[in-house]
Design brief:
Structural class: alpha/beta
Distance between the termini: 55 Å
Number of helices: 11
Shape: globular
Oligomer: single chain
Number of strands: 14
Largest sheet: 6 strands, parallel
Radius of gyration: 21 Å
Strand content: 15-25%
Length: 359
Amino acid sequence: MKKLLVALATTVAVLGIAPAASAQEKAKICFIYVGSKTDGGWTQAHDIGRQELEKELGDKIETQFLENVPEGPDAERAIERLARSGCGLIFTTSFGFMDATIKVAGKFPDMKFEHATGYKTAPNMRIYDAKFYEDAYLAGVIAGTMTKTNTLGFVGSFPIPEVLRNINAYTLGAQSVNPKIRTKVVWVNTWFDPPKESEAAQSLINGGADVLLQNTDSSAVLQTAEKNGKYAFGWDSDMSAFAARAHLASAVAIWDGYYKKSIKEVIDGSWKTERTVWGVKEGQNDLIKIADAVPAEAKSRVDEIKARMRAGSFEVFTGPIVASDGKEALAAGVAADQAWKDKVDFYVKGVEGKIPSAK
């Protein structure tokens, strides 16, 4: 019993929370969500991770979350609110929360903060990310096989490197099985707006796209594809139940492994400022629920590439990669490093149109 009391007291102390009044009091871990925890996509994936965290470490922690927090000034106020409520570690789970997290971390130097998908750090703030582009590439292999028009559609949120990587990977994956592929993109400048996402998807379909992918958080693109007799993919979470006839597969993010790692590092004192980028190899990404309509050859190709990703022997961005303007973006035989990926600001050859300025 003495060891248990010491362990709990140590956990609470490491998390920067005042000593517990009793052995029953738990360390408080908090989350900020940009959308609803039941959005069926991005935020739901994070909340599943939170729930899995509670299942494994529930005797040591309790969790709290704020959902539907807009990016911008509201985010800073929300993060600070949680900080003042006694949260010892706060996860901020949207790219647009980055600057707000940095500001609040500066005000609370004894607390710990983690930001998803960003690039800024502080002594008490680190970042974590996923290789979403690996899922996008795998989806592209299927899309390139299933298309009848050789035209794919992509609904983009914001023109940031993360999203541009996904557009390019989707196109490269499709071109690996079908060199005739071209991709059209419609930008919606939001992470979650079902009517706007649906309108964008309809525009792409009207323009000839018959297989769609998105980097937005709702199932609207998938559902719009089904209404039009076209195909699409789920994104971030399993969306197969939303539009079964249109659903080819779901590209999912699996966050619980990272969240468990992070909390355990806080507890054992090994937490440090760093950047973690995990993918298929670490179990943070996957392409699941591949439809029966997908030919066996394409499924086998996906399984083969996925196995190589797990082994660390397949890099999506390996040259030669040519940008849409015809210029070489990556030389033949060169595998892109993280610095290259962080600066992606171009479409690969086959993606139509111009990239708008990021807001």
